[in-house]
Every structure is written in structure tokens, then in C-alpha cells.
């Protein structure tokens, strides 16, 4: 296809595709899908080889948020039966982080629900970063604490944070339909504050919230303009008890097209498959590794992910390798990645969501597709009941 040849050529040169080209990727047919994956794979291999970076989420504070993000199980008024707890102690967070690092994670993402941190919260996270780095000095730490006030990004950087995550989530035009308690501009401002403080900016999106192809292209072009080092791509996990509980409108094919579009628009950036990987890509997850160069290991913030061991086996079986702490993530022209320029996190999204021998959740015989929209799918979403905030061992 001329389209794919053009996109590969541009991706290898870090040239920006046109909006029409990005839209055309989303409009490709199932017959063309493997060609789309192969084309995105060429760009991925140019900048990231066959490496897969593993990231590990630690939910420092879960639920009870005053904001109303419709996709989030921790939102104001959420009826989702998630774990709810206030700030973990630094040593508790450090213990949870250590499990992820032992499982192969190179980056730990410290996430807290809420509109944004108080200065006291920033101090608490600074102590947590110190506790984590004193145990594992090579680990990259990304904070994801919501909207930042002046000076907070600098304080986090000074405390040893490598990165800051704040997702744009959806297009500016539809932002008000998803959240009313803050704006798209507020989110842009926080990403810019993180950047300006020398933190590696991590900012991504959530697909599957009823947005149009044009909205998806808009948010990805908006992200490219902000120039984050990492872009988490979340696929909505429609949590029971949230306003988007019935938005089951993604297929594995659609997810692959979205990832490919992100790769073509942001060719040399860490593209991370975030929440919803197991639920929406299901048995097509290994194909997505040909496009994205990063995933979360273990559980998500409020839902369970595939067993950590299954992730490692999948990476090896698909012919990829886990990126080590001695390997730089980003290409040289971007500074090589965390530690040198940086740092990431999926507010992973404060809704980021994953499931294990979650055999129930990924069973292909129960899979639904976009042809049966509108039903709740409690069989595909397992609420997290282990790890941080519980007495049970984490999944890593
Ligand atoms: S995404 Fe973050 S700010 Fe929005 S409701 Fe969830 S925890 Fe609160």
C-alpha cells in the first residue's frame, strides 16, 4: 500500500504524517491489518529494536477522588467496588515496588488518586522515592499525582523522580464530555510544568470512550506537540459503577490500528500498551508488541492484570526481549531516556486497569466484540484484590 510505504518512510525519518494519513490508518480493513502491523513494526524496530520495557504500577492512594472523570473507577460517585485506602507509607510502597523490580520492571510508577497533590503530599512522595531508590538505585521512578501547582514538579525532580505522568486522555473537543471538574488545558499545563522541571514527560490517551477517529487523531497530534518521552495507550476498561460501564466498543483489530497510528505519529517515542491490554487485545497481545515497545507488568491500579510470568513468557515467545537497566530506552537523539534526560505512568490513569490467571477475564470463549455493544462485561474485568493496600502478595 502506498499509504503504508509513505508512513514507514516518514517514521524512519521522524517526519510527521498528515492528519489524513493518520485517519487512513484507522480506516484500514481487516484484510490490511497484518500489513499495518508489519509497517508499524519496521518503525518500532528502527528506534527500539526488539526491546520491551516493563513498568510497574504502585497505587499509593486508591479511590475517594473528588474529580469526576467518567472513565475512572476512583471518581467522585463511583459505585465500583474497588479497594479504597489512603496514602501508603513509604516502606509499604517500597515493598510493593521491589516486587515489580524483582519481576523485571525497569520503571516504577507511583500513582495517587486526587485532583493534585498538596505540598505535604509531595513531601510524602519524596520520602517514598527515597525509600525505593535506596533499595533499588537503578530503578526509574515516575510520579503520577494529578495536576501540579507551581514548584511541585521541581520538588519532585529534586527528590529523585525521573518522570511525571499526566495523560491528555481524549481530544480537546470532547474533553468536557468526559470530565467537568478540570479541563484539557489544565492537563496540558501540568505536562508542560513537568517538562520544564526536567522531568521526562509521560502523557497518553484512553481509547474506547465513544470518541471518533478524528478525536483519536486530534489527541495524538496534541501529544506529539507536547513532545512526551512516553505515550501510554489505554483501552477503556468499562468498570461497573462508572458512567462508561457499557462502552464495550473496541475489538483487538481496532486496538492494533490505534497503536499503529500512535506509532506513526510518535515514531521515536516509548509507546506503552497500558490499561485494557488483556481485556481488549486478548489473544492478539503478542501482535501489539510489534508496534509498542513498553507494557505494564502485573496489576493495574484498581483491576488485575495477566500474571507477570505470563507477560514474560509472551514477550519471549513473540521473539522480543525485556529491556534491562543497563539499556537505554529512547534513541540517542532523544537523550537515551530516563536517568539521562528524564522519566512516565499511566494515570495509568488513575484508572489504569489490568487481570491474571485471570483466566476468566481473558478467556476467548467469553469474548465479546463490537457487534454486541452496550452490555456490562463483569466477566472480563477483575477488580484488584491483592498487592498494595492489601495483605496479599502483589502480582509481578
Ligand atoms: S482519573 Fe484521576 S483525577 Fe480523574 S477521577 Fe480518576 S483518580 Fe480522580
From TrEMBL:
This is Biotin synthase BioB. Keywords: Transferase. Its EC number is 2.8.1.6.
